[in-house]
Amino acid sequence: MSSELNLVLVGPPGAGKGTQASRLVKDFDLPFIATGDILRQNVADDTELGVQAKQYMDKGELLPDELIVNLIMDRLQQDDAKRGFILDGFPRTVPQAEALDSAMTAADRKLTAVVVIEVPDEDLIDRLSGRRVNPTTGRTYHIKFDPPKHEGVDDIDGTKLIQRDDDKPETIANRLKVYHSQTAPVIGYYDRPEAQNKGLVRRIDGTRDPDEVYRHIRALVATVRLEDTL
Ligand code: AMP
User: What is the structure's pLDDT at 174?
Assistant: First the structure.
């Protein structure tokens, strides 16, 4: 059981969770479960869930816990997630964290680490407002910090880059507000004195360049795994 790697990435929108997760996925060969990506796919496919989700996403609001908990619980029960996973964007509220805890306990599994990527709000506003995305592959660029070779198109497949609807300024402000009021308490939840698994929360400085952030995360994962075997 202890060799399983069950990671949760927490951080405000724009902290670089997706970027870091895509590297972790390659190195550890684990399924990457990003609620935002799953929801955006549903919006693109015009599913019932997608139609419902879009109303919340466009405003930068969270979907009701029940909806998202069911979605993730189903996903975690699929075979590929049984030997580990990387979660991005879930849990985003304390009730979601409680639901995940119960499901993990019921399956006799536990989280390996909750990696918190910390970035101040002023940096996030710059990062999110300049972010551009390849709608097909999800690859991201930044108009200032990581521009594509040719303006507005993906370096690899030439797809026209778009701005996510929720990366528009009005929505960014609300997403940050929602993060501080609803998601930041999740960190306190995992850090609470009576928590079963002490030392679960590991904080990372997300203002550094992505390679350095990744080195820290890798080192941290190695440490946690070693501690687990002792
Ligand atoms: P993200 O790509 O993680 O920034 O997610 C985009 C949007 O999807 C959020 O602003 C929410 O509207 C919705 N969403 C993603 N994950 C969750 C979650 N765990 N709970 C509720 N809503 C979520």
Answer: 94
